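Repro:
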Amino acid sequence: MNLNLSNFNENTKIIKGHDNISEVKEELAVNGKEITGPPKIRIDNVKKIFKTKNNKTSKIEDFIALNDVNLDIYKGEFLVVLGPSGCGKSTLLDILGGLSPASEGEVKIDDNVITEPGLDRGIVFQQYALLPWRNALKNVTFPLENNKKDAESEEIARKYLALVGLSSFEDRYPHELSGGMKQRVAIARALAIDPEILLMDEPFAAVDAQTRAILQEDLLKITENTKKTVIFITHSIDEAVFLADRVAVMTARPGTIKEIVNIPFSRHHRIATDFKNNSDFISLRRRVWDLLKEEVIKSQEITEKRIKFEENENIDGGGI
């Protein structure tokens, strides 16, 4: 089925931050259903500053990674964060995970400020981070072992290994698994603690294109079954448009939310149809690229200026 997007421009708005959400809330949807209730997660005026040393002056300077980030994320939503390299996407995910504090502003889950990691959030990283001396089953039981008996932990682990299609591989060790299988184990491990929120930092970047496409479809099916709220980081426009209920496009550093694009198609539609090859997908992809292209160019210019500055420093200082 190829849905008509002839009314796309007038019926599907692009919004910026959460200041305008009340104006378009009736038009926003989570998995094709109208949003109801308050946001699950609110990111409010978040700024992140790192202290760095200037090699030329030896002074400590502020490096602003994120600036004035505002975003509402709703229960059950699959939100994809897309932006150029170095814009602070992973830094934002670290703040959401409680792994790093915001320098200014705050992030709330159900009106509770995030101050540390918690079992309400599962994290899947780009690198699989599996324990090589444990088989797949024991890797998934790992986060459960302090709070549950072995038999219960293994029962839960088997449930989620089955959900990601690895029931027959629970005795295999990481070196015996393909890249796609390793990432499935990592996803099962994150789901095993039954978090309300799944944070995913480019989880499919390290696998080949064919495996990536299969994992994308599997992830949509898993989120359909588990009803998790997902925040997913990627560099891929195609991946963003295929997976997301909404795509948050970030600016070049210092990163902030440039605009948000609604994807007005249910996950079932995206899975059941040849969505990536129809005109609707192509239109959405072009729209997102139009927003992102300027930021990618800015990011490259920032990088080139930094390299030129460092080269001049080396010349002035008699370096290489």
